[in-house]
Amino acid sequence: FEILSVEPAMAAPGQAVRLTAKVRRDVERNCNVQYTRHLYDGANFRHDLEGVQRMNAAGLRALDARTPGMLQLTVRVPTNAAPGSASLVTTLDYECNPLHAMWPIHVVSEMRFTITESPHDLR
């Protein structure tokens, strides 16, 4: 998995930001993935967004078939997030064979966006 580019996006604290990226996925391999996401706000404060998520190889192939070469997701910006340049960081651990249960293929991706002062700044 590789992020090639991210479309500009912005949201105010408490709002959802819609992120769209061009990506490259290798769905030829039969890999399962587990991942976590966190957000760094304009003050570089880390906000953990959710627990561990999992997707099997069939789910990854279905995702790629639905949005080929694209990743589209929505994330709620924490209400206490500082305005400024922000990053959504996703840490992915792929298991493509039994050995990867102990030593997964580790990938970290980042999608940058802007947190505005208030909803009025989005116009």
Biggest sheet overview: 6 strands, mixed
How do the helices and strands follow one another from N- to C-terminus? EEEEEEHEEE
Radius of gyration: 16 Å
Shape: globular
Structural category: mainly beta
Q: Report the β-strand fraction as a percent range.
A: over 45%
Low-confidence stretches: none
Total beta strands: 9
Which range best describes the helical content: under 10%, 10-25%, 25-40%, 40-55%, 55-70% or over 70%? Answer: under 10%
How far is the first residue's CA from the last residue's CA? 33 Å
Give your account of this protein's structure.
With 123 residues, the protein is mainly beta. It contains 1 helix and 9 strands. The strands form 2 sheets. Strands 2, 4, 5, 6, 8 and 9 form a 6-stranded mixed beta sheet that branches. A 3-stranded antiparallel beta sheet has the order 1-3-7, with no helix packed on it. A hairpin with a 5-residue loop joins β4 and β5. The mean pLDDT is 93.
In terms of topology, how is this protein built?
Layout: E1 2-6, E2 10-11, E3 16-24, E4 32-40, E5 46-48, E6 53-55, H1 57-66, E7 70-76, E8 84-95, E9 105-115
What's the short story on this structure?
By secondary structure, the chain is mostly beta strands. The protein has one helix at 57-66; strands at 2-6, 10-11, 16-24, 32-40, 46-48, 53-55, 70-76, 84-95, 105-115. The relative contact order is 0.31.
Features:
123 residues, mainly beta, 6-stranded mixed sheet, 3-stranded antiparallel sheet, 1 helix, 8% helix
